[in-house]
Amino acid sequence: MSVYAFDFxxxxxxxxxxxxxxxxxxxxxxxxxxxxxxxKSKGSICQLIDPEDVEDDAFVCSGGIMGSVKALEKLSYQxxxxxxxxxxxxxxxFREMERVMGRKLDYIIPFEAGxxxxxxxxxxxxxxxxxxxxxxxxxxxxxxxxxxxxxxLGLSLTPMPLVDHLGNKIVVMESLEATYADEIGRFVVTKGxxxxxxxxxxxxxxxxxxxxxxxxxxxxxxxxxxxxDARDRKTDPVDAFIKSCGGIKLFQGVITDIIAEDALGFxxxxxxxxxxxxxxxxxxxxxxxNETMAVWIDGEIRTIFPDIAFILNPESxxxxxSAGLEIGQPIVFVGKPCHERMQxxxxxxxxAKAFSGARYGCPNLAYxxxxxxxx
Length: 375
Hints:
CATH architecture of the largest domain: 3-Layer(aba) Sandwich
Structural class: alpha+beta
Distance between the termini: 41 Å
CATH topology of the largest domain: CV3147-like fold
Largest sheet: 7 strands, antiparallel
CATH superfamily of the largest domain: CV3147-like domain
Radius of gyration: 19 Å
CATH class of the largest domain: Alpha Beta
Strand content: 25-35%
Shape: globular
């Protein structure tokens, strides 16, 4: 078993990479920065471990912060981070998981890769004194708790303890529908101050290794370093990111229309983009449910969740938050296939339903792999 410490010198690179993985959501990286800066000031260091080094009989679960990106916008990140010193919703949720399961956790893993939801699990691991897995359950950010490799590969989402911002606590012990726990959680969060912390997918180490998307922290750092190096060299940071992640440039242009609503704990958006440069006289439309879910170019589908449509600032190469998108804003879309574990999860009936286009307003949209749409 090889445990290693996160190096705070990698904070900038990590947050850039996580902003990209966020695909519009995953929490604001500036919130993640405040979390990591607070830990650095206290000397509280997250220990990391790669999935393959975890013992088969270890007890592991995932979790994160649940809330609408628009609702979270209204909260003071610094006030929340300072308040967590005495009253941390995730500590409560994960301790409740231990109580329900009758066993202490050996490791924890982020639900998703995002600017908030990865750093917040890093600080949780440091506070609990256990390592965090260098991986996640999605290989990007995702809007709903059931949209994971875990559920499609046979792991149970429940029990799911959740503690909201006001201190209310529930545990979803069992759910017949894959979407039920998330829907209950969204209701609680909407009534409970706009955010909450949850724990879910209790598993052993053998199942973790079989089901997780590995290396999300180290990949995010690598992507961020590529962008920072390009800036230093005064070369294109988007090109550097594309080379680092192995994706392709789908589109570049300016946002011309945004239809958005904040509903039931989600920021639902349809965004239209007019092409520029190599994409002049072309147009793009995307559906966003906190994160990018589907992309059409000139009316033809080009990316479907869980495949990845990164949305980037063309000048900085950093990821954009969906709640901050504005008409007239320049934007770049970069696409790549999801991890093979997500592809595998899609083959199960529960995975297909959990990832369905019906979850983001496109009930007739059937999944087609990224490579087939972009050959």
